[in-house]
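Treating backbone geometry as a discrete language has practical consequences that deserve illustration. The sequence in question and its structure tokens are set out directly beneath this paragraph.
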Amino acid sequence: MKLSIIIPTLNEAERISQLLLHFKTHLPADEGEIIVVNAPKTTDRTGELAKLHGATVITADQSCRATQMNCGARYASGTVLYFVHADVLPPPSFYQDISKAIEQKADFGWFSYRFDSTHPLLRYNARYTKKDGFFAGGGDQTLFIKKKIFEQMGGFREDYLIMEDFELTKRLKKKGYFLHIIPNDAQVSARKYERNSYFKVNLVNLLMFVLFWLKCPQPIMVKTYRSLLNR
């Protein structure tokens, strides 16, 4: 299995080095590639630092995560795509875990996660990422998918400015593709909770899901999300 790791970025200079060093340490030699897809609106040293750590860096046409990830997928040469946010740290055994899942006939899937915080309520949230459910399938769980299936599905919908990951997994499930959840925690940044509050973030997340299922226009969802949370 050749794994193409695709990381969409927008001003992630503070975190990109840690993530790429993690991948360089734990990705078996000649078994994968790392593609950083920078947003054109990036104003910091994200791209420069990514190149220093040996990643392939490309710049997307738009500062939109769906567009950036599709751009990385088109460039990728791997048989399996692995989409990772810059503020998430996959478990050290990510390659072996994904390889085993693919051997067990998985078409796509993700990892459970935990936060980089000891807050007891965040540990409670993380418990529910080990199984499929209403809130499962977000980008923090680091989506892996066979490239041929990703292409058959048309990738991420680029008219989705938010929750593009949930939209894709919804389509994959509807088509009957085999989902595999790996119960080995990725580490997710708790910065959103630290900048706001536990209850506020969870209420906003719930609101976003309701708007998503009601097919609310994407610009309204983005405007609502940005107005309610300190990002």
